[in-house]
Amino acid sequence: MTTLTDLSMAEARDGLRARKYSAKELAEAHVAAVERIKPLNAFITATPERALAAAAEADRRLARGEERAMEGLPLAIKDLFCTEGVLTTAASHILDGFKPPYESTVTANLWRAGALMLGKANLDEFAMGSSNMTSHYGPVESPWRRKGDNRALVPGGSSGGSAAAVAARAALGATGTDTGGSIRQPAAFCGIVGMKPTYGRCSRWGIVAFASSLDQAGPLTRNVRDAAIMLGAMAGHDPKDSTSVDTPVPDYEMALTGDIRGLRIGIPREYRMDGMNPEIERLWEQGKAWLRDAGAEPVDISLPHTKYALPTYYIVAPAEASSNLARYDGVRYGLRVPGRTLDEMYENTRAAGFGKEVRRRVMIGTYVLSAGYYDAYYNKARQIRTLIARDFDRAFKVCDAILTPTAPSAAFALGEKMDDPIAMYLNDVFTVPASLAGLPAISVPAGLSGDGLPLGLHLIGRAFDEAGVLKIAHVLERAADFRARP
Amino acid sequence: MALDKAAVRKIARLARIRVAEEELDGLAVELSNILTFVEQLGEVDTAGVEPMTSVVAMTLPRRADAVTDGNTADKVLVNAPEGTGNFFAVPKVVE
């Protein structure tokens, strides 16, 4: 007998419609699970009353046969999405006490589809990090442990609380945001599915901004079908975000046909890096074999500017962050630390309110945008971003999707890699290029490392071809048959 | 490029973040390491390449220049650390 928290989103949806259990029972089981996983620190704010109230409404709708696409399904919401009247922190001290008087478009879409909120999930401060170590509210622990080693591991980041909550069976799914890998890398570390859609597919309105030309919201779920269901509810045109694209959202679940015969899967030679972890390389080879066995055709491709993606990202993202985070000045919301003058008040507030990684990135961004350096750094990076996007355009003339590993290693221990920012940045080496090119990409759990930790494979698709990416991911998932649990 | 203490002090000032004098040396090393890392972009020939402005090929939509909301001063001020009447309050800027 499976417990209600072990169900997939699709199973829970079908079970609710078949009256096997009520939305109230499903919500209560998850509220209890959120309480049970408190030691992981996956949530900054739990909202059990809100979840139970929404479940009561879901039961009324189900009774009337008026259920919506995600009726009664309990979710964790990354605490970067503004939720009306509910504390929204971005895991930063500087947003102390901030209760938005408005709701982000993506969460509003989810509530309109009938989903309910269990709480606000922990993250790296302002989504800047790959370990969830930079949160003002303390690190999140992964529910996973290495074989024979009880040391706490990171869940990845920045959507670390979201990934940990879903992997630990405390939520059926969670929202994340991905700027350079912040959905896909934690999904890989926690053994779940994480998808970053095409830039423009989900509205950014009401999401605390990090790097606006890269930020995209997406789902973290325990399987590909659930990702399809949840993305369908999150996505859609929004006039309040001028970069939101006005194009129809297909039925992503319908795309999961299992038939990938004849599709060409690009294997980029530049992703095979010197000193690559042999476990990761083997898994990548295995993934290629699985897709070939399913009738797809692997083809060698070249993405020549791959090695420049990370340095490009570490100019573009901090530059945008330094502009976006200028709004935290102690005047309109959050923390204020007094000063004798207005400038002193700004400087004191921002010194106290930002953590070390955020301060580092704001300062780098300020520098690369400053007079005399703008062309040498920021414009150069934007030019190389054009070249990286062109690499993908060329590759997609000869292939339909691209297969790579998600991350260069399995999860590491809490506190590791904290001394060297660049070692931490390398976590995103395989995910950043697709971010710079705005392309849809997904991480699928595909195997275990020698010490028993999940490893992910990563598929990148053409712009707005989330359906194609999900279809291939679904086949990969079936072949990998990943059943390990934390 | 190696940043010195004076450069870091200037960046901190531009970013409006107070940095204690004893932190400047450490930050100079950290920021210089990151700059050295990103400077490998100098190897790439970008002559004649257009800097990316939009990652998705689209023209920005237009809308009517019309007032669509307003009279929500209470909502706007609800999170302010200090407000007075319908205004945000800040330290005195004019003598």
Describe the structure.
The complex is a heterodimer of chains A (486) and B (95). Chain A has 486 residues and is an alpha/beta fold. Chain A contains 15 helices and eleven strands. Chain A has a domain at 4-259 and 407-480: Amidase signature (AS) enzymes, CATH 3.90.1300.10. In chain A, 37% of the residues lie in helices and 13% in strands. Chain A has an eleven-stranded mixed sheet with strand order 1-3-2-4-6-5-10-11-9-7-8, with helices on both faces. In chain A, helix 7 packs antiparallel against helix 15 (466-480) and helix 9 (309-324) crosses helix 12. The mean pLDDT of chain A is 97. The mean pLDDT of chain B is 93. Chain B has 95 residues and is mostly helical. In chain B, 32% of the residues lie in helices and 4% in strands. In chain B, strand 1 (83-84) and strand 2 form a beta hairpin. Chain B has helices spanning 5-14, 24-38, 73-77; strands at 83-84, 87-88. Classes of the chains: A alpha/beta (486), B mainly alpha (95). Chains A and B meet through helix 9, helix 10, helix 11, helix 12 and helix 13 of A and helix 1 and helix 2 of B.
